[in-house]
Amino acid sequence: MYQEYFTEDHNIFRATVRKFVEKEIKPHIEEWEDEELFPVELYKKCADNGFTGLRYPVEYGGTPCDLFMHITYTEEMIGSGSVGLISGLGSYDIAMPPVLKMGTEEQKQKFLVPVLKGEKIAALGITEPNAGSDVANIRTRAVRDGDHYIVNGAKTFITSGCRANFITTAVRTGGPGHKGISLLMIDSSTPGFSVSKKIRKMGWCCSDTAELSFEDCRVPVENILGGEGMGFYGIMINFQTERLALTTMAVAVAELALAESIKYAQTREAFGKPLSGFQVTRHKLVDMATKVQVAKEYTYRVAAKMEAGQDVTREVSMAKNFACEVCDKVVYDAVQIHGGYGYAREYLVERLYRDSRILSIGGGTTEIMKEIISKVS
User: Fold this and answer.
1) CB 131: neighbour CB atoms within 10 A?
2) What percent of the chain clears pLDDT 90, i.e. is strictly above it?
3) Residue in 293, 277, 282 with CA at minimum distance from that of residue 333
4) CA 328/CA 250 separation, integer angstroms
5) CA-CA to 344 of 20 to 30 Å: which in 74, 134, 143, 374?
6) CA atoms of 281 and 50, how far apart (whole Å)
7) Superfamily of domain 238-375, CATH level 4
8) Distance between CA 175 and CA 228 in Å, rounded?
9) Following DSSP, what letter does each residue of 137-158 receive, concatenated?
10) What is the pLDDT of residues 148-165, one digit of tens each?
11) How much is the CA Rg of the chain, to the nearest whole Å?
12) Which residues form the catalytic set?
């Protein structure tokens, strides 16, 4: 199945990632979830195995490949049972595209290369306490002062923000609206930068999420990406890929929850027979499987169109909304099938239930996706 999307190279890579997950992640994931942090050394291990920098140019330490190789990686990493883990490891993939697309060669060597080597951690700093989906309304300001910008403001809900070395930061250098936004690369060692707090969350526990503060941070002018006023463009260039990644995560989580439910229904007995012996359970599993299959097929189709260079702004927004709705329903039913055990942390579906909730919020909420769909013909 899906031979039209995946080649033998994809299958070999899938086996490699799966082996890595079994050896390096699964034995420790419960501990990392409880501690709400995974070891920083994992970034380097992923880079050394060629998992970091998929679809990035080889001259910067990346691995050129097609979109389905990245999908393969995402699906197998979700097999670890922690969406937070892949989100934390992949924070560079939302922080570095503006550097790749807009940065000078010097900026790429300074910021992109060490991140793709797994030596530095990158985060994307856009969301603020008063500006989430409304990106054009950010208030963090950068005022030119000779060869530096003086940055003041705050960011929140920043994935990997607690330990990021580089923050691709949206700042206001001009007037109101999106034309006044720029992107600055800010080193976390800059005086005046601080992590205000680590945000504790319902899910994605082993992925650190931070609130950041900037108080008179002096950032070199040479750290601006693409010049003043280019920030909104830099933010937008990766949105479609990010939304496809979240869509893939939603489908993979739903598929994992379905597999766990089938396994549980076949082994758990009630009234003298397995749960799968009851029609109501079988039919619930059938409904779950149908939803997962349809969401998966549509996600792959959208990815194929994106890989072919087609504009899929409308389709990827539809795919994200549909996949997230499917995921929400499937993880809900998975917990229901598990009964009281579905509410216990010793069972995987409990974490999947919590981890899945953010998928319809991150990368553009369901409501924002609907607005995009309504405006694109």
Assistant:
1) 17
2) 87
3) 282
4) 9
5) 74
6) 42
7) Butyryl-CoA Dehydrogenase, subunit A, domain 3 (1.20.140.10)
8) 11
9) G---EEEEETTEEEEEEEEEEE
10) 999 999 999 999 999 999
11) 21
12) 242
Q: What is the dihedral sign for C-alpha 144, 146, 149, 150? A: negative
pLDDT band at 1 (very low <50, low <70, confident <90, very high): low
Nearest C-alpha neighbor of 346 from the set 264, 269, 266: 264
Burial of 185 per CB tally in 10 Å (0-12, 13-18, 19+): buried
Beta-ladder partners of 220: 148
Structure tokens at 281: 């359970």
pTM check: above 0.85:
yes
Say if CB 350 and CB 342 are below 8 A apart: yes
The architecture that CATH gives domain 122-232 is Beta Barrel (2.40)
Is 270 strand, coil or helix? Answer: strand
DSSP helix/strand/coil, 180: helix
pLDDT per position as a tens digit, 188-245? 999 999 999 999 999 999 999 999 999 999 999 999 999 999 998 998 888 889 999 9
Q: 8-116: CATH homologous superfamily?
A: Acyl-CoA dehydrogenase/oxidase, N-terminal domain (1.10.540.10)
**Angle, nearest 10°, between helix axes 239-267 and 67-78?**
40
Scored b (16 or more CB within 10 A) or e, 159-180 reads bbbbbbbbbbbbbbbbeeebeb
The tokens for 119 are: 């030596």
Give the H or E element holding residue 281: helix 279-307
Sorted by sequence, the CB contacts under 8 Å of residue 362 that are 6+ apart come out as 246
